Amino acid sequence: MKLSHILLLALVLGVVVGYFAEPSVAPILQALVKKETKPVAARDEWDDLADKNRPSDEPEPEEPKPEEPKPEEPKPVEDDGFVDGEEEGEEDDPEGTAPRKMMRYVAEDDGMTPVSEEPFKGKLTGANWRQPAMLERRLASQLRQALKKIDQKGVAEFLKKPENRLMLAQWELLHLSDMDALSKLMKDRETAEDLALLLNDLPWVSSFVYDGQLQKPEIALAMVRHFRQNDPNMDKDVLHEGGSALENVGNTKPGLKRRIAAAVAVQFTRNGWYGEGRELTPEEIEELKILGNMGEPRRKGKKEKVDFFKDARERYQFFAESADQELLHSGFASLPDWLMHIVCGWKGNSPFGSATTMRWLRDNCSAPAMNYTGMAFQVPYLPLNVTGDVIFSAQYYEPFQSQYPGNFAKMTRDVGAVCGGLSHFGTSSACANGVPAVTMGEPGHCAYAVYVDGKWHPSNTVSEDRHPHWSCWGEYSWSAFEMMTSMFQNGARTRDAQMVATMGSVLAAHKNPINALKLFELSATMQPLNQPIWALYMETASKSLRRQPRKWLGVNEFICSSVAPQHPAMCATFLTENIYPSMLATLRAPRQKIAAFDALFSNFNVNEKAEWDIDKLLDMQYASLGRSRTLKKEFFEKLFDSVSKHPSFSLAVAWAIRTAYAENKNFGKDVLQMVEKAMETTTDRDSMVAGIIRGAEAVGNIELATQYSEPYIKKKEAEMKPLPKFEPVGGNLVSEGGLVTLSKYHPDFRSAIYHGAALTTAGGLIQSDGGKHQTVTLELKKAATLGGIVIIPTGGSAAGYYEWNLEVSKDGKEWTHLAKLPNNVKDPCVRVHIKKNNPTVKFIRIDSGEGQLIGINFRALLVYDNKKVH
Amino acid sequence: MTTRKFTKSVVAGLAMAALSLSAVWSAQRAATYSEALEKAGDDGIVVYCYGPDWNRRSVRMLNSFWNNPETEAAVGNAVMVAIPFYENQDHPKAAEASEIRCGFPDPPFGVCPLVVMLDKTGRAYAHLPGTDYLGDEEGEKGRENMRAYRAKFQRYQEIMKQVGLVEGSSGSSGSTVQGAERAKLISEAMDLQLYIPGGSIASMPPYIDPNLLKELEMSDPSDKTGLVRRQSHVELQFRYKLFDTSDGFLKPDFEADYDMIKKECFKIIEDPAYRTWDRQAAYMTFIGQSRRESIQPNQLKGHIKKMGAIDPNTVFGRGAAALHDLWGNYSARRTPEQRKADREKRKQDAKKKKDKKIRERRQDEAIEF
Predict the structure, then answer these.
(1) Which chain B residue has its CA at the smallest distance from A839's CA?
(2) Residue A398 contacts B, CB cutoff 8 Å
(3) Which end of chain A is flanked by fewer CB atoms within 10 Å, N or C?
(4) Which of B275, B267, B128, B76 is nearest to B190 (CA)?
(5) How far is CA B308 from CA A102, B203, B205, in A?
(6) For residues A500 and A523, is the Cβ–Cβ distance under 8 A?
(7) Residue A32 CB coordination number (10 Å)
């Protein structure tokens, strides 16, 4: 390294270190840096790069014209050492990232009229497709020529032309493809000509590319070609002459069998369901990529045949023949393509997805769509079969398999199953009849949901913590599933947004990142519910918007206002994962941050339970505020104001109490006062009190929990029937005034207000969530020598109790087994009388163990000492 | 030649006319379910459920099956009524359909096409859903099943008359037979497996009619005929008791008692009073446990063979040969030394669990529930 380089490096390091380290020098350095960076901000390296690489045939993007007044700058914060105001490198907002501008796309269309996918045929030939790499370049060049202006009007004009839309879908397909494999597939002239027919069909290719997370397009196309070779009638219209015999059934979209082929191929390829229900070896995967003898069973050695597309072909044939003969539910033919993907892409690797099973279900379990939510309950719930084999063993179905060759559903119905079998039966019966349904994971359980009248209806469910087993963007939470549903329900807009993003990718691939970013932003704003596009936009933007806090604020506000009202969980997740990491690093004024955070809570609209990781979000927000208590109080004030208006998010109160008390007791008291103040205006005081109690329980603050629980003891006593009578088990009641903590709280967090009452003879409620080893821990006010414990379950009897463990501890760390609760007691209470070796303890814990997955539910948990009562 | 041909045609024509006339005479059609209830005689009612706005197959079967004269012949003198079940309640014809339906309950699980066979009071004695029971769209299998169920139903009614259990009679006092004879008849009626609540969707286990069981117990209080234990045996309860579970989930420390299982199962297996299905199920329980105990392969094969021979036509009987190959060989794959080691290990595990239980019991002695 030369001396000059070392000196330069030292200078830069000095500037940087000085900028952050020494408060007295910092303002001067900052001013210097601002001065230096201002010209760069007006025209940064991305613009330069864009100019350098802009092809001669590409039109100049319009000069930015600020249309919206600049938002008022927040006042600088003096007490935290940061300087607010104009940020380094900040530029105007010329292209409309300001939320109001962004919202116009969403609310008013503003020239971006969604274009529905009308039939249109392209002119590419098989010969064109035989040279895919060249075709990709040609399409990109034509697309860049066709896009005259990169503003919303220009893009709207561009999208109105079906030839542009077709080119976009074709380019996207090529972009996703393995070019070598695609070339090999298209090498066969007949194949190329045949596929060209489909790839010129705009509605088909656009659905193929955009509706089901297309992966490995070359293999999916090989599958489609294989289906066509086996079904020469694929292109014939499905409906018989004279139309359907059904009364007043909606119009069927043309080309139904082509759509089925696309859905099966995309889903089977995406999930790797090749071959005969087994994992392929690496060599076979290579073979599959080469696709030399595509469509023909490959001979391996002399004996073994690998028919890669057998399962997919049978699935296609099942739906094609069922549609041909009109054996499916009347709604199938008019399903939008994304739902067609769910139906036809039903588990290709499961015995519930075999053609024999699906035929039987189609012919014997055909019902109105809503009835599929109950179809699972045809199957008897039998964990232990007739040979004494448990459901989790391989032997459970063995004695019956020869009786039900290939028909797993019928065998399940006759032999039995547990939650997984029931839910798969329900889902499979719906899909086999053309009704969309998905299985879902819940803690220790499998449930399912059926799509009827534009909504997913959960069934066989035990928890609200659901994870559907289908996603089009790899995110499997229920919130993501609902948001994806909303997104696809606005199909035309979504498709436009997807195509705009493709155009962005075209430009990005041709080294025009600035214009690509503009298109990604436009796409994201057109359809704010499209998470992958947002992620793409954020990934690209994080490089160029580093020094543009107002842009970040605009993005944050836009996301909050357009996503949070209906999909708060997804909005919060997106903010924590995609926006905050970049935005918080960019914003230097804490009050700007507080305003940005408030944008989320103030936009909550649905009064649904907070089923997402609210703690993670709040931790991230809180940590970014630094150490200033004044700022933290401002943050809490805004937070509680929002919570008071949306009490279903009162878990935020629990977090606040826990965080503030853990930091400092006095600070905790201050925060508590702020909660009290917010409670004066709320419509649901109970929820906020539940938040306080949950917070107190989390930090082990008995006094606080007792203080807020006390009023509810009398309330519960007045509301509920008295507890059932029971034989005394000891002396004085010592549980009253204790502190309850649960390993996992029931989603209905409001029940925390009755925890205190549950420790008294008034009775209250303690509810844990489901799952193995759930615990309820009681910390007594002071240590006591136990005489007995009485547990009074909800529902009037202890019939649902399964040998739970009762443990005791002096310090809450070392636990001693006291007793195993009796199984299935029919009495209205479980009574534990300790006759000798009475332990002196402060903590009592009930562990649900390995047994049932249902949560722990008590009306009362009463602990008595062993003193004589006179 | 021509005259002979002519005579043949006339005879054939007359035969066809007679057939179609008999069909017309044998069944009546009703426009609504309430009309069917009014018209119904001893042969009861047969209802065809279809989905006009969602299930095309059931709509097609209206013509190909339901309105086929052969179907009329198959239902005897029962009153036939077709009831449309609309999915879309706003459909212009949904209100009309509701009048036709007139209180007729939803099909089990909403499944169509479906034939429901009911007695004259409107109580369903058989459900015939989907291709399993109705066959293809021509419905020949459906007609066969309808004839079979009609015959069963007629026999059931005869028995009910004999044992004094028809509507308005006073139970055993109105019975023409008493004691063991009455018990036999009631048991026969129970074996017909009619009036299964929720429809005859699943084939296992046999359904026990609690009212008939009560009458059976009254006719044979000391179970001299063996029919009370035959009809009151609930296979699931029996099995769960052997495995010490109330819900089918084995306890974590459960250790099967092979001798007890063998003893209890053979009580059922060797008692011809029980249904063959129940005897085979008990045998299957024993076989399953024997497999887990790694008994000699030949012994296991022998048991499977004997189990199948009890009734080759049940689900167990039909599967015996396959199970013989599967589990017989599974067991054979273990060498005698391996099987001995299996048994030793099981014994040691059982001892460990027993010791643990004793320790816990000692600890629990201080506790009273």
Answers:
(1) B366
(2) yes
(3) C
(4) B275
(5) 74, 18, 17
(6) yes
(7) 12
Residue of A577, A575, A584 whose CA lies nearest to A604: A575
pLDDT at A548: 81
Q: What is the mean pLDDT of each run of 10 residues along chain B (369 residues)?
A: 52 48 63 96 96 95 95 95 95 93 92 96 94 96 96 95 78 77 96 84 76 95 96 94 88 83 96 96 95 84 95 93 84 71 79 75 64
pLDDT at A38: 30
Any CB–CB contact under 8 A between B290 and chain A? no
The residue with tokens 């994962």 is A577
Mean pLDDT, rounded, of chain A: 80
Q: A435 and A331 in contact (C-beta within 8 Å)? A: yes
Written as one string, the DSSP assignment of A255-300 is -HHHHHHHHHHHHHHHHT--TTTSPPPHHHHHHHHH-TTTTSPEEE
Q: What is the pLDDT of residue B336?
A: 77
C-alpha to C-alpha distance for A62 and A68, rounded to whole angstroms: 17
User: Residue A602, exposed/middle/buried by CB under 10 A (0-12, 13-18, 19+)?
Assistant: middle
Q: Which of B208, B283, B273 is nearest to B242 (CA)?
A: B283
A398 token code pair: 């063995």
Residues of chain A contacting residue B58, judged by C-beta atoms under 8 Å apart = 366
Under DSSP, is residue A1 helix (H, G, I), strand (E, B) or coil?
A: coil
Give DSSP secondary structure letters for B301-335.
Answer: HHHHHHHHHH-TTSHHHHHHHHHHHHHHHHHHTS-
| Omega cis (within 30) before B113 | yes
Please tell me the distance from the alpha carbon of residue A169 to that of residue A117, in angstroms, as a whole number.
12
CA A649 to chain centre: 19
Start-to-end Cα distance in chain A? 91
Asked whether A426 and A437 are in contact (CB, 8 A), the reply is: yes
The C-alpha R_g of chain B, in whole angstroms, comes to 28
Please report the pLDDT score of residue A819 as a whole number.
84
B130–A366 C-beta distance less than 8 A: yes
Asked if A659 has any chain B CB less than 8 Å from its own CB, the reply is: no
Q: Is A364 close to B288, i.e. CB distance below 8 A?
A: no
Find chain B residues with C-beta within 8 A of A823's C-beta.
Answer: 246
Low-confidence ranges of chain A (pLDDT < 50): 1, 3, 7-8, 10-100, 102-115, 238-252, 292-298, 300, 302-303
C-alpha–C-alpha distance, residues A612 and A466, integer Å? 11
Cα B107 to Cα B118: distance, rounded to the nearest angstrom:
13
pLDDT in tens, A540-565: 887 777 678 888 888 898 889 888 88
Distance CA B350, CA A489 (A): 59
Give the H/E segment covering residue A807. strand A805-809
Token reading at A222: 């090989």
> Does residue B182 belong to the interface with chain A, where contact is any CB pair within 8 Å?
no
Question: What's the complex ipTM?
Answer: 0.87
**Cβ atoms of A753 and A693 closer than 8 Å:** yes
Report d(CA A330, CA A238) in Å as an integer.
13
- Is the distance from CB of A672 to CB of A708 less than 8 angstroms? no
Contacts of residue A587, defined as CB under 8 A and 6 or more positions apart, other chains included, come to A549, A552, A553, A593, A596
Q: Give the residue ranges of DSSP H helices in A451-548.
A: 478-489, 491-509, 513-526, 531-544
What crossing angle do the helices spanning A99-108 and A513-526 adopt, rounded to 10°? Answer: 50
> Could you give the C-alpha distances from B120 to A592, B35, B166, B186, in angstroms and in order?
78, 12, 12, 21
Which residues have C-beta within 8 Å of that of residue A243, sequence separation ≥ 6? none
